[in-house]
Amino acid sequence: MSFLKKYLAVLVFLLLWEFLSRAAVVNPVFFPPLSEILQTIFRMLETGEMERHAGISLWRALSGFSLAVLVGAPLGLFLGSRPGSVRRIFDVPLELFSQLNPFLLFHILILFMGIGEAPKVTLVFFTCLWPVAFSSMSGAQSVNPLLVKSGRAFGLKGFALFRKIIFPAASPFIFLGLQMGIFYSLFMLIAAEMMGASSGLGFLSMNSQETFQLKKMYAAVLVIAFLGLLLDFLVSLLGKAFLPPVEGVLSRAEN
């Protein structure tokens, strides 16, 4: 029942899509019925075409996102746990780089890296880096000083203090950054594939539009939306599975 309430608007939209197209309220040539688009997806899955493009897009998105997590989370936690005077040294460079337009950056990356996998993965990495880094920094800054003092009172210091106090307390912010990053990864990758690629869901959508294969275009759009929801759900699931309860941080410190 809760599932229906949560996705009721989506279900109504999909039913309206099917009805309006079948009733020719909208032109079915430009807006095919949902059922026909689903049939197109299944046919593309049978031939392996959809699987190939989706697999390539997922590999690119997850590669860039993983690199952003490996760099952004430690960077944000390190800067967030430093005194304000140290953080201020990095404020201007971080703000400057985070405001760079990724679409303009993509053309520069192609100029130096060529048209291959490297510029696409690098663009995803650059786009995901900032929400992950800034969320991790906010998490480290939001740690209750009493928790840190209590941890030190139990004899924790250095990496042990970070592992048992700072990281668990900052984890909700880190996972918020991961959710934002995973969304940006797919969104930015699809845009990059539309501008310069010969494979992937973004290329499939753009190429299908240019060749007037509109059912394929809508099929690619639906798969992109589904993958975005799936990735967001998986990150949320990981967060629920691994996030320690805040009230349990002190008891972990005692051990």
Q: Count the E strands.
A: 0
What percentage of residues falls in helices of 4 or more residues? over 70%
In whole angstroms, how far apart are the ends? 42 Å
Radius of gyration equals 22 Å
Shape: elongated
CATH topology of the largest domain: MetI-like fold
Number of helices: 12
How are helices and strands ordered from N to C? Answer: HHHHHHHHHHHH
What's the rounded overall pLDDT mean? 83
CATH class of the largest domain: Mainly Alpha
CATH-assigned homologous superfamily of the largest domain:
MetI-like
The assigned structural class equals: mainly alpha
Tell me the CATH architecture of the largest domain.
Answer: Orthogonal Bundle
How much of the sequence lies in strands comes to under 5%
The parts where pLDDT drops under 50 for at least 5 residues are 246-255
Integer count of domains = 2
Biggest sheet overview:
none
Write the layout of secondary structure elements.
Blueprint: H1 2-6, H2 8-22, H3 34-47, H4 49-80, H5 84-98, H6 102-113, H7 117-141, H8 145-153, H9 159-195, H10 201-210, H11 214-242, H12 249-254
Structure description:
It contains 12 helices and no strands. The chain has helices spanning 2-6, 8-22, 34-47, 49-80, 84-98, 102-113, 117-141, 145-153, 159-195, 201-210, 214-242, 249-254. The protein is 82% helix and 0% strand. The protein is an all-alpha fold and 255 residues long. The longest helix is centred in the last third of the chain and has 37 residues, at 159-195. It has 2 domains: 1-31, no CATH class; 34-254, MetI-like (MetI-like fold, Orthogonal Bundle). The protein is elongated.
